[in-house]
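Q: Given only this backbone (166 positions), what sequence would you predict?
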């Protein structure tokens, strides 16, 4: 099917189509001058097993992107199903204020959020231009995995994934 639409209606249609995709909810973190920073993302994926790599997409105007460019590293915290409040907290503006009252530890030089379903520490390998976003390709240097269901985002709402018995 071919869609003929104005740019605005194409963006609305694209947004609706992407709402139909279930994505993991993660918080990307970095540290600068000993202070933690982070933001919520839903555009993250594994990229390579050899070497272990992931990709994550950040808004081109993101302050966090600028910090990651300076530090050369980032953490990816895959949130657990019970961490929707953290997702909302890190989705707002606020620099280090997002970490007020939030427990965190340092792992491989970046902030890790306790209770996350998974954590990956990465060094930036490369940046790829992606329109109004920048895709960071990260070499994984450290991982942590916890048992539990991940937090997902689908149809503009948080949920989780439960594997079907086969």
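A: Predicted residues:
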């Amino acid at each position: 099917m071919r869609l003929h639409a104005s740019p605005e209606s194409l963006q609305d249609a694209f947004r609706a189509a992407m709402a139909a995709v279930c994505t993991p909810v993660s918080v990307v973190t970095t540290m600068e001058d000993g202070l933690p920073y982070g933001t919520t993302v839903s555009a993250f994926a594994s990229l390579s097993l050899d070497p272990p790599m992931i990709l994550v997409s950040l808004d081109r105007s993101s302050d966090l992107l600028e910090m990651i460019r300076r530090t050369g590293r980032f953490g990816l915290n895959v949130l657990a199903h019970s961490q929707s409040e953290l997702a909302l907290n890190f989705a707002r503006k606020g620099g280090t204020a997002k970490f007020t009252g939030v427990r965190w530890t340092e792992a491989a030089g970046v902030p890790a959020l306790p209770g996350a379903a998974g954590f990956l520490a990465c060094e930036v390998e490369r940046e790829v231009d992606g329109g109004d976003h920048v895709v960071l390709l990260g070499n994984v240097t450290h991982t942590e995995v916890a048992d539990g269901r991940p937090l997902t985002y689908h149809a503009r709402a948080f949920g989780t994934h439960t594997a079907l018995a086969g």
